[in-house]
Write a structure and sequence with these properties.
single chain; 529 residues; two-stranded parallel sheet; 25 helices; 1% strand; globular
Amino acid sequence: MVDHLSALGGVRASGPSALLRSLGRITPLGVINAILVSALIAPIIAVFLAAMVDSGDLWVHLLETVMPRYVANSLLLMFGVAVVSLLFGVSTAWVVTRYDFPARSIVEWMLLLPAAIPAYLIAYTYTDFLEYAGPVQVTLRAIFGWQNARDYWFPEIRSMEGAWLVMGAVLYPYVYMMARSAFLLTPASFFEIGMVSGRSLFWSVGLPLARPAIIAGLALVLMETLSDFGTVEYFAIETLTLGIFNVWLGMNSLAAAAQISIVAFLFVVGLLAVELRARASRSYIDTGKRSASLPAVKTRGWRSVGCLAVCLIPIAAGFVLPVGILLTFVAGGQSTAFNSAVLTAATNSFMLAIAVALTVMAVATITSLYSTYRAGPLLKQVTAVSAIGYAFPGTILAIGVLTVGTSFDAATDWLSLAVFGEPHGGWIAGSLALVVIACSVRFQAIGYGAMTSGLGRISPNLVQASRTLGHTFGETVWTIVIPLVKKSLLAGALLVFVDVMKELPMTLLLRPFNYETLATYVYQFAKDE
């Protein structure tokens, strides 16, 4: 008992020192890290502060009229996209992992191609292809002699069900990647036990053990679904994201838009809670000496055809068909002329994506290096929290970034007026810098995840050996750490580049006047039919 009391007393006595140890030493790198982390967290805090502003009777009006519909449509859209993504992602992951069929090595990489296509772009192409005046229905009327739409039934692509297909066809790669990795990492001994027991290897072994990874991928799919704007706006599906746009731009109420954003944030929190619970509630330990995955089964004849069909259907739906439709439009002379406006939009998209990719990776490099080698336990957690922007819909972050940007401009205006006697004008709000900051906050998770993953593979002994030889921390990072994480850095930058090229909501909301990217340029044409 005395020992226990003395131990407790020691904790109390060393409380302040323990807190200082958890914070880590104050260094120039630590100060820079604190500034960057504060800048990343500020927009998220700003959303909550903006939501506390009184919106008058507008919020009550929204609750009585459109909010139930926004919530119901969001839930229904997420459910349908989840079903399509799981069907495409899990089935293809199991087929390419379990069976060896012709062109398997090519197909397993082609299954990732739909991730490069924006959902709203596929929505536009499918609508042109399948609508009443599109080639499919025109051909059917010519073949069967139908005169008008009353003579036959054809599914409406601009509908909730159409959104399920369109968004599921481009988002399933998240589930596919996670499920395929889980199937490959499941030790062969587990499958062998299932074989001996006469159980289904997929339903009894593969799927239960891969469930946490599948749910993690599904959580990413649902976050993307919730933050989508282009598809739901074009298909006229009133979701929370579309409601934020309508309230902010249509009713000119930033407070009410922020309050709707909080509702969407609760959805995201629920998804993250489900993901964490899925990861925590399922685990296994392989006690065998070998942990190799189960060898793929060689297929022949109709089994090979079936495996190819399972894999080619999502590839065709999410990549081949929409790209083929676009190429057909171009070949038929139905595309817009490649004029200076297109070239300007393409240049703007490229330069914006480059700027955001460089910003994200620079910030991620500093924060991940500090978190890994310098930060105490508390600052490690705070730094990790600062990289959760990807979990928030773009419209939410746009509100937060705009609030912080206008506050910064107001503060600098006041300072300039006090020092120089005149305001300087806005530096952030209404400028391209606001778009770069917003995208950097949203996609910081990608860069931070890539860098921490790369740093996790570096042996601490290498860094310690360099320091023992007399090199400073900066020299160690530049000569040893950076070369070893170069591939992770490039991979993260490439992923951010692709995501920024596809980004629509934040660019559409925050861009300066007369500034177009390819995403906003295409959106304007689609909006004008």
